[in-house]
Design a protein that fits this description.
alpha/beta; Peroxisomal Thiolase, Chain A, domain 1; 7-stranded mixed β-sheet
Length: 336
C-alpha cells in the first residue's frame, strides 16, 4: 500500500469516505440568523427543558448524534465509533452524550477546530479499514463557555467590540465507507502556532496565524491554487480574524479571492450585534452539517475546504499570563 501522506502535513484519501448525512441543533439566537433554514432543530430557549446549560449542551450533542444516524437511515448500534469534542473541562458534553449511546467513544479537544479534526480523524478511521461507519461531532453553548472562560452571563459584563459570540449549537456528520453523497478527499492537520497574543477576548487575532499556516501548507502539499475550491471557509475567525488572515496570506504570496469566508461571519447577521461574529466548537459544526452540506448536495458547491480554527488556552493558563497557542485543521469535501 502506497503512502497516503502528501507533503508536510497533508493526507490524501485513496478511497474517500462518504458523508451520508449531517444533523444539527441550535439555540434561539442562532435560529434567528441568516442560516435558520438550514437547521434541523431550533431550541425555544437556552435550557431546552434541562436544569442547567451544561445538561442542555450534552443533550444537544446526543440529539445530533442520533439525528445524523436516523437521517442516514442506519441504526445507532451499527456505528462503530463516535469522535466528538466540546469546550468544557474534561469534554463533559461529549462524554456525557456518548454514555447514552453505548458506542466506542474517542474524545477530542481541538477547541473550536474540533469539528474539522473529528471529520479528518473519522475519515482516517474509515480509510484505514478500522471502521465502516463513524459519527463525527462537536458542540458549544454560549452560556457554558462564557461561564468557564470569561464571566457568568448573569453578571452582564460589557464585551469588547472585537469579541465574538459563542454559538449555542451542535452538529454531527455520519461518515461511511460506501454510499452516495459528498466525500472527504483530503485533510491537512495543523501545527500549534503562538505569536504571543494574550487577550482572551480577541480569539480571531490568536487563531489567524495558525489557520494561515495550515492553508499555506495545504496548497503547497497538494500543489493547488485557491481557485480549485468553490468555497474556502474558516471555522470561527470572525471579522477581525478573517481580515488578519487575508493580510497574512497576501504577504505570503497567496492572495485569496471571493471564495474565502468564515462560519462565524455566516452564522449571525450584523443586526444581531454579536460584535465580531460567532465562535465555538458548535459554530463550524452547525454550518458544515447544515448550510454547507446542503449546498454541496444541491450542486451549488462541488469543492469545499474547511479550516477549523482553535484557540488552545485555558482559564488557568490565561490567568498565569501565558500567551495563546492556536491551531488550524483542514478537510476537503468534494462531490466526485
Amino acid at each position: 500500500m502506497g503512502s497516503k501522506r502528501v507533503g508536510n502535513q497533508s493526507i490524501v484519501f485513496q478511497n474517500p469516505p462518504f458523508i451520508l448525512a449531517g444533523y444539527n441543533i441550535v439555540g434561539p439566537k442562532e435560529g434567528e440568523g441568516p442560516l435558520k433554514a438550514s437547521y434541523d432543530q431550533i431550541m425555544n430557549d437556552t435550557y431546552n427543558g434541562e436544569k442547567s446549560w451544561e445538561k442542555t449542551e450534552a443533550k444537544m450533542l446526543e440529539t445530533v448524534l442520533r439525528g445524523a444516524a436516523d437521517k442516514a437511515k442506519v441504526t445507532v448500534d451499527s456505528v462503530e465509533f463516535i469522535l466528538a469534542g466540546d469546550l468544557l473541562n474534561q469534554i463533559i458534553s461529549s462524554s456525557f452524550a456518548a454514555r447514552q449511546l453505548g458506542i466506542p467513544f474517542v474524545g477530542l479537544y481541538g477547541a473550536c477546530s474540533t469539528m474539522a479534526l473529528s471529520t479528518a480523524l473519522g475519515a482516517m478511521f474509515i480509510e484505514g479499514g478500522f471502521a465502516s461507519q463513524v459519527l463525527c461531532a462537536a458542540s458549544s453553548h454560549h452560556d457554558t463557555a462564557e461561564r468557564q472562560y470569561r464571566m457568568p452571563t448573569e453578571q452582564g459584563n460589557q464585551r469588547a467590540m472585537y469579541a465574538q459570540w459563542t454559538v449555542t449549537g451542535a452538529g454531527a456528520l455520519l461518515l461511511a465507507d460506501s454510499g452516495t453523497g459528498p466525500r472527504v478527499t483530503s485533510a491537512t492537520l495543523g501545527r500549534v502556532i503562538d505569536l504571543g497574543t494574550t487577550d482572551t477576548n480577541n480569539m480571531g487575532a490568536a487563531m489567524a496565524p495558525a489557520v494561515a499556516d495550515t492553508i499555506l501548507n495545504h496548497f503547497q502539499d497538494l500543489n493547488r491554487e485557491p481557485d480549485y475550491y468553490d468555497l474556502i471557509v474558516t471555522g470561527d475567525l470572525g471579522t477581525v480574524g478573517l481580515q488578519l488572515l487575508k493580510e497574512i496570506l497576501k504577504k505570503s504570496n497567496l492572495p485569496m479571492g471571493k471564495n474565502l469566508s468564515d462560519c462565524g461571519i455566516m452564522v449571525f447577521s450584523p443586526k444581531q450585534d454579536t460584535h465580531a461574529g460567532g465562535s465555538g466548537c458548535g459554530c463550524s459544526a452547525v454550518v458544515l452539517s447544515g448550510h454547507i452540506l446542503n449546498q454541496i448536495n444541491s450542486g451549488e458547491l462541488k469543492k469545499v475546504l474547511l479550516i477549523g480554527s482553535g484557540s488552545l488556552h485555558s482559564p488557568t493558563s490565561a490567568l498565569q499570563g501565558e500567551t495563546i497557542p492556536a491551531i488550524g485543521h483542514a478537510v476537503t469535501i468534494e462531490m466526485i
